[in-house]
Backbone:
């Protein structure tokens, strides 16, 4: 090749735009995936919130929607990616965020947590996802957190996103409580979402979960999404909907008087080894509480939830918080847990449960 | 014979001259590729929805008269020949628009009144109320068989569209406004001035936006219809239905891939960044 031609090639190569190579926008602005670009959602001046959840599910819903034509979308709008999950299916499940159930109440630019107690609870797509910034690596990129003075911080951790609605919101229903308060790393115990846990001995942890991250493979921090999400392993990640109550990835029963099985507390058994727990390797009466004393009526076991709060405890270590609908004060009017030693799995319980007075029961 | 040669040379010179002019600032065009220029309302146009129909009215054959007149023009802009629209439009007022919600941004951008400037001129046809032939000089020109024919369909901008679903117009887009919006929307970057905007093809390189020479704010630094649209002709003709780039001000020059999508989006990128703040 003549030198001149080589030089021309080099010059051309050096000035060629690095298309998509140093792409810094969200996936919706990546033309290799969204071939029609901005007009996909913003055709014919459709600038009002891009059209709401109904527009989102055109691409993220039933795949048959992709083959249809829509007045507000250009021809050939269908994304080039074929591995998109069917979010629409998730919202048909019995336990789901109210995205399609509560319509017409979302306001753009909402300040969250909600300050107006009369505001109806809702969760449209843009409450959790910013379509301009969202990427596979960061599903909540570009979502605003709380306003601090003139500045609005951006959400960098998933729990901050959840707290927008599940923490100090003035419109929290009575059955909900402030998750920021439950998960606060200043509590005596908490599931390690905001930070590594305080307790140095956590019962029956399955590898790679560890109390502290020591080696690179250790997992000492979990996220809301580790427990809350689709029950389908092939479904989309994130708490859109689930067949399990509380939008949980596995079943978790909080009822009293039920036989233990791998399914009943499947959620807990993802991280806490069932055979270790039922083998009383930590708390020596675990099996007795969970399985009960026999198969006859009234002697079934009780839920993990009877003694433990899944998120955290503002009173005790080891996530201990008694479910007052099952546990009541003992004959002396006392209801408490007292630890003996530190991380020794020894303590005292003062309570009454299943007609048994703990005054105290020492272990 | 000499006369014919003279005319051929004269026309050639005009075409070449206009071609040179087009490189800098394209002027009016009688037709657009693939069909008539919809802003040409004259009798001889083809393939358009609205045009003059009274062949005995000599004004019906004039291209410019529907908007411009050499005499007795209104003062709004160059030789303007239309009455101001009588409609009240309001401003885009979505509760997600910081320009609308924040007092500082609203004041800095002067986002307080009705559409003004050249956008208001566009509305003298696009309001769906004013007759298309209602010129200032003389009686209205007959369009589609009537002197009262108004625009209909998607191209009409009424109060509902302006306040709800249309891109906001007539606000000052200055460095001060951009700074305020970035503070309110996304501290890293959600907006930039066209001069600072990277191209969608090289998002990491500031000031490489290919549309920035074509995207124009008016003399008050206001974003108007004419920021994205060239009322005289579309600089980029696309065959989509509806077109993604109607009367588009940018022709795609400088883009390595020139199609309706890239040409459309490069204009959006001139002001909007969407850079992921926390990847």
Residues:
């Amino acid at each position: 090749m003549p030198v001149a031609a080589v030089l021309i090639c080099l010059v051309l190569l050096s000035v060629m735009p690095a298309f998509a190579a140093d792409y810094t926008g969200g996936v919706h602005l990546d033309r290799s995936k969204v071939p029609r670009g901005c007009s996909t959602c913003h055709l014919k001046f459709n600038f009002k919130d891009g059209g709401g959840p109904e527009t989102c599910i055109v691409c993220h819903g039933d795949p048959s929607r992709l083959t249809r034509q829509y007045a507000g979308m250009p021809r050939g709008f269908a994304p080039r990616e074929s591995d998109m999950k069917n979010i629409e299916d998730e919202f048909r499940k019995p336990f789901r965020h109210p995205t399609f159930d509560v319509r017409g109440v979302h306001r753009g630019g909402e300040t969250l947590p909600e300050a107006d107690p009369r505001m109806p609870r809702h969760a449209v797509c843009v409450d959790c996802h910013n379509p301009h910034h969202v990427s596979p690596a960061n599903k909540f990129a570009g979502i605003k957190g709380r306003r601090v003075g003139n500045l609005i911080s951006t959400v960098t951790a998933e729990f901050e996103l959840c707290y927008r609605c599940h923490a100090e919101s003035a419109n929290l229903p009575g059955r909900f409580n402030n998750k920021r308060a439950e998960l606060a790393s200043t509590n005596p115990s908490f599931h390690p979402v905001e930070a590594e846990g305080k307790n140095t001995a956590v019962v029956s942890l399955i590898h790679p979960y560890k109390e502290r991250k020591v080696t690179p493979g250790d997992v000492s921090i979990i996220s809301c999404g580790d427990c809350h999400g689709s029950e389908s392993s092939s479904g989309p990640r994130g708490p859109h909907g689930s067949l399990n109550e509380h939008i949980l990835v596995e079943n978790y029963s909080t009822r009293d008087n039920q036989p233990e099985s791998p399914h009943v507390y499947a959620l807990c058994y993802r991280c806490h080894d069932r055979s270790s727990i039922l083998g009383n390797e930590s708390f020596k009466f675990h099996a007795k509480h969970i399985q009960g004393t026999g198969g006859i009526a009234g002697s079934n076991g009780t839920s993990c939830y009877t003694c433990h709060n899944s998120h955290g405890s503002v009173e005790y270590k080891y996530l201990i918080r008694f479910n007052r609908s099952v546990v009541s004060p003992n004959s002396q009017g006392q209801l408490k847990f007292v630890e003996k030693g530190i991380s020794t799995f020894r303590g005292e319980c003062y309570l009454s449960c299943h007609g048994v007075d703990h005054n105290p029961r020492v272990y | 014979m000499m006369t014919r040669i003279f005319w051929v040379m004269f026309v050639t010179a005009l075409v070449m001259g206009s071609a040179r002019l087009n490189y800098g600032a394209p002027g009016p065009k009688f037709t657009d590729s693939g069909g008539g220029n919809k802003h040409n309302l004259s009798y001889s146009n083809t393939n358009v929805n609205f045009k003059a129909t009274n062949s005995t009215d000599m004004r019906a054959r004039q291209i410019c008269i529907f908007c411009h007149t050499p005499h007795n023009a209104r003062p709004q802009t160059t030789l303007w020949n239309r009455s101001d629209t009588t409609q009240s439009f309001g401003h885009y007022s979505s509760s997600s628009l910081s320009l609308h919600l924040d007092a500082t941004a609203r004041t800095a951008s002067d986002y307080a009144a009705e559409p003004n400037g050249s956008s208001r001129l566009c509305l003298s046809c696009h309001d769906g109320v004013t007759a298309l032939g209602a010129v200032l000089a003389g009686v209205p020109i007959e369009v589609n068989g009537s002197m009262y024919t108004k625009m209909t369909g998607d191209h009409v901008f009424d109060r509902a569209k302006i306040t709800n679903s249309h891109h906001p117009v007539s606000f000052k887009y200055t460095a001060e406004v951009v700074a305020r919006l970035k503070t309110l929307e996304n501290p890293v970057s959600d907006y930039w001035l066209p001069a600072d905007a990277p191209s969608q093809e090289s998002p990491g390189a500031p000031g490489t936006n290919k549309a920035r020479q074509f995207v124009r704010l008016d003399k008050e630094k206001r974003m108007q219809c004419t920021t994205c649209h060239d009322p005289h002709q579309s600089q980029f003709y696309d065959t989509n239905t509806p077109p993604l780039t109607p009367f588009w001000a940018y022709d795609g020059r400088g883009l390595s891939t020139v199609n309706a999508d890239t040409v459309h989006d490069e204009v959006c990128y001139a002001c909007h960044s969407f850079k992921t703040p926390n990847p």
